[in-house]
Amino acid sequence: MKPTAPARQWGVAPPSIRIGRAEEVLRQLDLLITRRLDGLLQGDYGGFLPGPGSEPGEGREYQPGDDIRRMDWNLTARTTVPHVRDLIADRELETWALVDCSASLLFGTALCEKRDLAVAATAAIAFLTARTGNRMGGVMVWPGGSARVPARPGRQAMLALLHTLLTKPPTGDGAGSTDLAAGVEMLLRPPRRRGLVVVVSDFLSPKGWERPLRALATRHQTMAIEIVDPRELELPNVGYLTVVDPETGRLREIQTAKKGLRDRYAQAAAAERAEIAASIRRAGAQHVILRTDRDWLRDIVQFVVTTKRRGAGFTAPAPATNVTVATP
What we know:
The protein is of the alpha/beta class. About 35% of the residues lie in helices and about 20% in strands.
């Protein structure tokens, strides 16, 4: 259940999808993201790449700190000195974005709607990974339907994918919840080379997505971007409030002046979010939380910097990264 009357706040917000044409929104996102995120990825193949590569390269003597799984036992036996085999860096990254287009994202009580933030987060990943030869593809799911955009290289293909996300999918016309698990399954078949997969959703769809997400994370660097609005975590004390279920359209009036009701709502919401975080962590995906009442670009910057320092790879499932940077 969501409040029907949003209360806007001051701060940095992504361009509203409902204002202007899709081309104008993309142009604003390009300028906003480029100014804030340019320079975070040093080199064409640094940063968000899934590990150092998969093709074996030259052998060299073992140095303390080298991954023992890269030991070259044949070379070690011939030279009687421990050797490891370097890996040739992949010169092409394939990125896939799975975007939840369910009706629950058509809601926002702060700087923007959740769908605006979902599109902005997808655009940020797209602009960050748009390098020479890199390919970007997308899968969009909504109640009763889905669409796949093939992965193609080049900036124009990336902009075409974002344009499709802005204009094509239905937004709230269908009834019921989005089958997020089916969307993840679409990324599992056919099998693809190792790359980056970004799942953008509020993860309020029925359970069942954890198992396919775990299968996805065993092969690809997987990032789960959770979109949250503050009113989903706690109710304001505003007296009688009309709320609506965006998935079904059902209306209900509640008395928010009752502290017990507000406390039960906050406890249930916290338990739900904790279970979502635990499911993502068990799946082995990196977890980023973006809120409609915070500077979303600052949160993404924090995640990128943390990922670069930690060094992303496939050697082990990455722990959840719940970005909780507060804007000044």
